[in-house]
Amino acid sequence: MIKKPTPLKVQSTSKPRQQQQQQQQQQQPIQPKQGLFTEKPSAKLTNIKTIDPFSDKSKQKTNSFAYVYNAGGIPCRINHGCNVMKLQWSAGISIEQLQYDPLLVTCFDGLIEEGHPYHFIASQAIKELLEHPDAQAKVIPLVNKLVWPLRTSLSSKSDKVFESSMLVLEQFSNTVGSHLNAHVKNLIVPLTKRIDKKNYREKINQVLRVLEENGGPDAYKTIKAAMPTYSNM
Questions:
Q1: How far, in whole angstroms, is CA 148 from its chain's centroid?
Q2: CA-angle at 183, arms to 204 and 188, nearest 5°
Q3: φ/ψ of residue 90, rounded to 5
Q4: Residues 6+ away with beta carbon under 8 Å from 130
Q5: Helix 184-192 and helix 159-176: axis angle, to 10°?
Q6: Per DSSP, which regions of 149-190 are E strands?
Q7: With pLDDT > 70 as the criterion, what percentage of the chain qualifies?
Q8: What is the pLDDT of residues 54-108, one digit of tens each?
Q9: Buried b (16+ CB within 10 A) or exposed e, 179-199
Q10: What pLDDT sits at residue 41?
Q11: Beta bridge partners of 88
Q12: Half-sphere exposure of 112 (CA within 13 A, CB side)
C-alpha cells in the first residue's frame, strides 16, 4: 500500500495579540500628565522675542540704533540676572568718561525700537546717563538734538514705546529743568492724543506736573493752552 504523505506543519508568522498590543503602546508617544511642568521655569526669562541682527541687514538704516549697537558703537551689554536684566557698561568704561554726543543722541533715536534687546538698552542707557551727577552740564547743550527723536517715540502707536518715552520725558525734564520750556508745546502734542484714555490719564497728568514743576509758570501756561482741562492739583 502506498502511504499518504504527511502534511507539512507551517509555523504561524503572526505574533500573539498581547505582544502586538505591547509593541503598539511602546511606539505611541508618552503624553505629559496634566498639572506637571511642560517647560523649564527659566524659560519665562529666556523666551524673550529678539531681533536677529543678521536676518536682513539691507533693511537696517546705517544711522539706526540697532545698526550702531551691532557695530559696537554702544559700549554696553545686557547682564541677565536671575530675575532682572541690568545694563553693564564695557570693562574700563565709566559714565563720566563717555561723550554724551553722539551717545545720548543715538540712544534717544533708539527709543522708537520695539524689539529686544534694543528697546531695553536704549531706555536703560538713557536712564543711567541722565541720572549721573554730571549729566546736566552735558545734556543742556544737546536739548535741540534730543527733542525730536523723543517727540517721534512719544507719537508711536506702540504702547510699550509710548510708556517708556513718557518715563524718559520725566527724566529729561528733571535733568534740564526750564531749558526744556521752549519745546514743551511740541512734546506734549502726542500726550494730548492719549489723555482721554483711562489707562493713561493719570500717567500723563503726572508727566505734565513734572514739566510744570521743573519749568515754572511758563511751562504751566504752555500746558494749559494745549490742555485746558489740565489741573496741577
A1: 20
A2: 25
A3: -60, 150
A4: 139, 168, 171, 172, 174, 175
A5: 150
A6: none
A7: 73
A8: 455 545 444 589 999 999 999 998 988 767 889 999 988 899 999 999 999 999 9
A9: bbbebbeebbebbeebbeeee
A10: 46
A11: 77
A12: 15
Q: Which helix (H) or strand (E) holds 207?
A: helix 198-215
Q: What is the mean pLDDT of residues 12-28?
A: 59
pLDDT digits (tens, 9 = 90+) for 168-209: 999 999 999 999 999 999 999 999 999 999 999 999 999 999
- What are the cell numbers at 209? 506736573
Helix (H, G, I), strand (E, B) or coil at 188: helix
Q: Per-residue pLDDT for 5 more than 80?
A: no
The amino acid occupying position 91 is: A
Compute the distance between CA of residue 39 and CA of residue 140 in angstroms, rounded to an integer: 49
**Type and span of the H or E element at 89:** strand 85-89
| CB neighbour burial string for 98-137, b if at least 16 within 10 angstroms, e if fewer | bebeebbebbbbbbbbeeebbbbbbbbbbebbbebeebee
- Residue 186 to residue 209: CA distance in whole angstroms: 16
Between residues 23 and 214, which one has the greater pLDDT?
214
What pLDDT sits at residue 68?
A: 92
